[in-house]
UniProtKB/TrEMBL annotation:
Protein name: Mur ligase central domain-containing protein
Keyword Transmembrane in record: no
Source organism, top-level taxon: Bacteria
Record keywords, A-Z: ATP-binding, Ligase, Nucleotide-binding
Sequence ranges assigned to domain Mur ligase central in this UniProt record: 134-268
Keyword Nucleotide-binding tagged: yes
């Protein structure tokens, strides 16, 4: 019997459980023999988990101070973003053949796998969704939110096809059932804010990568800055030639990260808007800080590349108050 663990039962852990309970295992991982119903475990330091009666059916628990014991007994472990990929117990399990995954990794695996397999989950012959991933050290959530608002307002007739997911908006896996409800005419656009913790174990990259300024940070959660950078690099590392990557050309780490991509590279700087447009942006932006102005330029550039008109972009920026 396949054994699956959900490590950390917060917002993402709950979405993984809901997804697993509604799908056949062969739709999720074709390498595991799914003749038998999988055994699902919830591992969490908290002993008092808030589960509904329907959620708790056939679920096993390992909670409290020993919740990390025996990770090597599972076939797959879905970790929450707050659980480091390089956790010693997790790495020991990897050495014994256990797959360490996450809600974000599962989402990318499904959305960017061969189209025939994707349609088994979406159940319609819709165009493949366009995934936009946003990362950086500061302002990625604000930038992802602003970009989402621009796209929704620029295309009111397509606003139901634009989703903000991940750390901001809805859990990624909760988006998948919604895609089946869409008419098959145009692609959905899914915008994800991606932290280094979410990127660390990815082996897929978004169609459009957006890389903001990167600085040494989160070193309390990574071995060193090199590990932090390598984690961030997964937003670009697995891109295809048909993809795109936007990056700040005046930030050496953003530029380095873009060099890891095979996609079309689009350097971004404040002057890309032109002097008059940049001055207009400075006058209307409501959120303080130079980094927010710079990130607004990035959001405007990406939106423009997708066909949004300048006046509609500036209107959203003017009314935007932050996350």
């Amino acid at each position: 019997m396949p054994k699956i663990a959900i490590l950390g039962f917060g917002r993402e852990g709950k979405s993984v459980l809901k997804f697993l309970q509604r799908r056949r295992l062969t739709q999720i991982n074709t390498r595991i023999d799914a003749d038998k119903k999988p055994e699902i475990w919830i591992l969490d330091k908290n002993k008092n988990l808030n589960l509904t009666t329907s959620q708790a059916v056939d679920i096993k628990f390992q909670t409290g101070k020993n919740y990390l014991q025996n990770l090597d007994k599972f076939d797959i472990v879905f970790r929450s973003p707050g659980v480091p990929y390089n956790l010693p117990e997790a790495q020991k399990a990897v050495e014994k053949g256990v797959e360490i995954s996450s809600a974000t990794a599962l989402f990318f695996d499904i959305m960017r796998r061969p189209i025939q397999m994707t349609r088994r989950l979406i159940q319609k012959k819709s165009p493949r969704p366009i995934i936009i991933g946003v990362t950086g050290t500061k302002g990625k959530g604000t930038t992802a939110t602003l970009l989402c608002k621009i796209l929704k307002n620029a295309w009111p007739e397509r606003s139901q096809r634009v989703y903000l997911a991940g750390n901001m908006g809805k859990p990624t896996l909760n988006i998948i059932p919604r895609l089946s409800a869409l008419s098959p005419r145009k692609s959905a656009i899914i915008i994800l804010e991606l932290s280094s913790f979410q990127l660390q174990d990815l082996n897929q990259s978004p169609n459009i990568a957006v890389v903001l300024d990167i600085f040494p940070d989160h070193l309390d959660s990574h071995k060193n800055f090199k590990e932090y950078l390598n984690a961030k690099a997964n937003i670009a590392k697995w891109q295809k030639k048909s993809d795109k990557i936007f990056y700040f050309s005046d930030n050496k780490y953003s530029k380095w990260l873009a060099s890891k991509s095979r996609a079309k590279k689009i350097p971004v700087k404040s002057s890309i808007l032109g002097r008059s447009d940049l001055q207009k942006l400075k006058e209307i932006i409501q959120i303080p800080g130079k980094h927010n102005l710079k990130n607004a330029v990035m959001a405007a550039t990406v939106a423009s590349s997708l066909g949004c008109q300048k006046d509609k972009i500036l209107k959203v920026v003017k009314n935007f108050r932050g996350n």
